Amino acid sequence: MMPAEDERSRDLPAGHSWIEVDYRFPPGADGARQAQMLAVGQTAGSWDARHSHREKELRSHLGEVRSLALQEDGGTVATIAFPRGNLDGSMGALLTMIFGKYSLGGVARILALRLPADYGLQPRFGLPGLRQRLDVHGRPLIMAIFKPALGLDAAGHAEILAQAAMAGLDIIKDDEILPDLAEAPVLERWRACAPIIEARRDRSGRDLLYAVNLSGDARSLQEQARRLVAEGANALLLNVLTYGFAVLEALVRDPEVAVPIFAHPAFAGALCGAPEHGLAYGVVLGTLMAHAGADAVLYPAHYGSLPFSAADETAIVAALRARAVAPVPSAGVHPGTLAQILGDYGCEVILNAGTGIMDHPDGIGPGVLAFFEAWERWQQGESLRLEAVPPGPLHRALEKWGGG
Amino acid sequence: MMPAEDERSRDLPAGHSWIEVDYRFPPGADGARQAQMLAVGQTAGSWDARHSHREKELRSHLGEVRSLALQEDGGTVATIAFPRGNLDGSMGALLTMIFGKYSLGGVARILALRLPADYGLQPRFGLPGLRQRLDVHGRPLIMAIFKPALGLDAAGHAEILAQAAMAGLDIIKDDEILPDLAEAPVLERWRACAPIIEARRDRSGRDLLYAVNLSGDARSLQEQARRLVAEGANALLLNVLTYGFAVLEALVRDPEVAVPIFAHPAFAGALCGAPEHGLAYGVVLGTLMAHAGADAVLYPAHYGSLPFSAADETAIVAALRARAVAPVPSAGVHPGTLAQILGDYGCEVILNAGTGIMDHPDGIGPGVLAFFEAWERWQQGESLRLEAVPPGPLHRALEKWGGG
């Protein structure tokens, strides 16, 4: 029997000299032949007799098919081991090796990726670091999103933040679709919001993180991150899959950008959505994000507004938690989903609500308060059913969105 | 009737204020509803009554479903127009808008993308610039690949290049799977090869471009590119899809990296390979590459060693040529495929052969000469069939690989 995906993707011991990948080939493909093509074609390349004098050097770089398992539906799952020495430690080189040219010809899906624990980067903060910055322990962190973001200027961002900050919010992030536009330049957004964060800290002693969305080319984006952090920005948001893992890695390595980085999953479906192609969500949003240094990773909760599978969510969370990266189940999160999320995750989670806060019938402040009210009831074992909840923000939220 | 894909992906006039995308939804999906979700969800986001006071600002950012066409198989093709003003001009923001969050939930495939001609970057060299640098006109450019690359040190690269240079090769590139390894550091590879290129220029007056493979994180990769160019490197290779379009854009904008950039398609199949998900090859390897500033783009020739479709190849070439980017049909190219490629492309093409040069039975020099022999016969209308070709490099190549 195949182990569950979250088991299959566990890190290998630090110093391990192989990288292991599980590929699935669909029914009808010659899995054994395809696996051999991958192991050889993505490493030593051709094996012409003319290269026999170089056999020793080539052999040290050669991939190996470690196992082949025929599936019930006629597909094949192959485990291939690649020498770690073929790589420079970057995600770009890794993806080029394990799927690069092969992806243009063969039909295969990467189900799992096992990297040595010391391959790539560690998150600099992770969930423990976020808790330390916020000085919030023993409860889930509550996170909101500026929405609708397009058409909202810097002052509009500040107005929203003022309401959310007053209600005790922990983290807010830009909408991922808002780049550095002339009508709401990213630096102005931060400058308008910074005094509100400062005032909250002065008043309550509690920090509030604002993950500012980065955009541009790889260089201008990093310069933007540096300017933001130099002006006090305390968190960043990156659409890792549309900008590149290499951009995330550069930010994580930059001592001038010493703030937590939230990774957004936009575009992951282009890589992960098809059943027999691309890569499993657990690999892209779990293993790769965790080894590229993200501090927190967003992904759809399987009971949210996007049709996401529980197995994918489980695989993502296992890979993130193995490296202390904060899991951020998202999309369709509202106070009525809190019990279900905490049932799955316990408290070590960030609850990220966009419309589930912004569109609360009584406004943004009550939108945040409804989450805290739900958390307090849950913690004390009280029911979250509408009829059991007294009038107030949570009651109004449950009326609108259901759940509980 | 739908226009052919290469027609559908034509650039819009410069200054055009919309970006148009054709999506296909599979049979069984409610195409009209999905299109609406895309147009609204990827722009204005939610349309809650609470935001009515912001309606004017939101409306200027709203996407519009421009057409819906039911396909014979029950699928739907929808054209959606997105305001250009939602973007900062980067490919990262573009991909986030047109497919970002939606890709996590809905099943759709992007068939075509029409960008204003002045969106993004122009190639700085393109095929005309490559010809000018090489001073080669009126014939296809001949390009080789260092293979097998892993296990080959800097001196080994130089040995191969010496043979190829003597035979008159125009361009050589690193294997895309060779990053900056301690056993063959990228700077040492260039330093070992530079004197051979210089000697060829002194001897024949003709330059030879060596596209050096970049790797690392976004910042170290760009520093590597700058160091290489400072030491005289005259071309670069980037795995655009595993490092990110943002990395390509940063290189193209960098005045310190004023050399042609070759874009490798490794990993494109993870985005483009599935029938109903992701993006068409013409969008990724054509439109996006051409608007991100690549000078030359590699992709599988449909009669090569990878099972690639002629329609995909046609769409890629149309998008590249619209911006003077050099098309580089690759994978399984050998002298026996020359007539077919030139029949399709004419002379305005780069013929890129890996094993088709390196594994020539008589060695690398004859591997290059076989291409020139084939070109001369083709130009003079002489047969390329084995029995018509006199003994020599081309005859030996046709014996080994067939074709003609």
From TrEMBL, chains A, B:
SUPFAM superfamilies in alphabetical order: RuBisCo, C-terminal domain (SSF51649), RuBisCO, large subunit, small (N-terminal) domain (SSF54966)
Domain Ribulose bisphosphate carboxylase large subunit C-terminal, first and last residues per copy: 129-296, 323-401
GO molecular function, one term: magnesium ion binding
CDD domains found in the cross-reference section: RLP_DK-MTP-1-P-enolase
Gene3D superfamilies: Ribulose bisphosphate carboxylase, large subunit, C-terminal domain, RuBisCO large subunit, N-terminal domain
Keyword Plastid: no
Annotated keywords: Magnesium, Metal-binding
Entry protein name: 2,3-diketo-5-methylthiopentyl-1-phosphate enolase
